[in-house]
Design goal:
It is a single chain. The protein is of the alpha+beta class. It has a single domain, classed as OB fold (Dihydrolipoamide Acetyltransferase, E2P). Helices cover 18% and strands 42% of the residues. A five-stranded mixed sheet has the order 8-1-2-10-9. The longest helix is centred in the first third of the chain and has 16 residues. It is globular and about 45 Å long.
Length: 158
């Protein structure tokens, strides 16, 4: 085997170890299992102090300070047309879009779910139209429907 072939073989081994395309960070909002690609998630945090931003859109809960970095907190409940949680306690799924960081406020965070070997199905027509507009597909899991969100669309407020 030539050096070039060995390099190719070893790089394929590395790629398969670092392939996150089948892994999603899962969380629940209003009891529904949702997810975003793991490579879009910077970190997951417990409830944080959020400074309100007057005159902002309803989906924008405010700003939080993450080790000196200002992060915009987005209520996924509001974005999906749901009422706020009664106790107000939300977990934070911090994502990056370009140079900015956003915290998606969710009810609870689950595990990283690996869906390799499963195929993503199109968004069902029966899903609420507002939800369909921010969803890229679904996976049928033993515990129910796993809805994959389109983070770019969720963070596009225009």
């Amino acid at each position: 085997m030539s050096t070039a072939e060995m390099d190719t073989d070893s790089s394929h081994g590395m790629e398969s170890q670092l392939d996150y395309s089948n892994q999603y960070v899962s969380f629940r909002v209003d009891g529904q299992l949702l997810g975003v690609p793991v490579n879009m998630v910077q970190e997951v945090l417990t409830e944080q102090v959020i400074s309100p931003t007057p005159l902002s859109r309803a989906e924008i809960k405010g700003l939080l300070n993450l080790r000196g970095q200002i992060v915009t907190a987005v209520s996924l409940r509001k974005r999906l047309g749901l009422p706020d949680l009664e106790d107000g306690n939300s977990m934070n799924v911090v994502t990056r879009m370009g140079e900015e960081s956003f915290s998606l406020l969710v009810d609870e965070v689950g595990d990283v779910i690996n869906v390799s070997g499963r195929s993503m199905e199109p968004v069902p027509r029966t899903l609420d139209p507002h939800w369909r507009s921010v969803t890229i597909g679904v996976f049928q899991l033993e515990e129910g429907l796993f809805v994959i969100l389109d983070v770019e669309t969720i963070l596009n407020f225009e």
